Amino acid sequence: MILVDTGPFVALFDHQDAEYTLCKDILRTTRDALFTTIPVLTETFHLLTPNSRAADCLRDFVLDDGVSLWFLDQAATARAFELMEQYGDHPMDLADASVIVAAESLRTTKVFTLELADFHRYRIRRGHRHIKVDILGE
User: What are the residues facing 101 on neighbouring strands?
Assistant: First the structure.
């Protein structure tokens, strides 16, 4: 199972993006199920421009089960806000926090992101341990 962050979605659906080929090649080589969060999709649609061809293609991808959605409930939202405070010295946005919370809940460490510096810093809590994020394509 792989959690997908905003950057790869923008790159995959905006063919003019500099990371388009890299992201397409990474996605082509993976066989794991893809998951994402609503905050990631919200951020992605904002960056793609809601009425664009790229946004239309992303909507189709989601509706055709190209990616499964993981929803934040009240406890997950509280955990995301906790993470945003914890990483306050280098601000973590809600989309990134939702990916880390989803990783904790779904018990995965694999994240497809282009935000290497940020996700190298983040840790996934497993009980009393904190595990590094396994960044796809690195």
Answer: none
Note the pLDDT tens digit of each residue in 99-117. Answer: 999 999 999 999 999 999 9
If pLDDT is split at 50, 70 and 90, which confidence band does 89 have? Answer: confident
Angle between helices 6-13 and 53-63 (to 10 degrees): 120
Cβ atoms < 10 Å from Cβ of 2: 22
DSSP letters, 57-117, are: HHHHHHHTTSSEEE---HHHHHHHHHHHHHTTTSPPPHHHHHHHHHHHHHT--EEE-S-HH
- List the one residue out of 2, 112, 15, 108 whose CA is nearest residue 58: 15
Q: Which CATH class is domain 2-135?
A: alpha beta
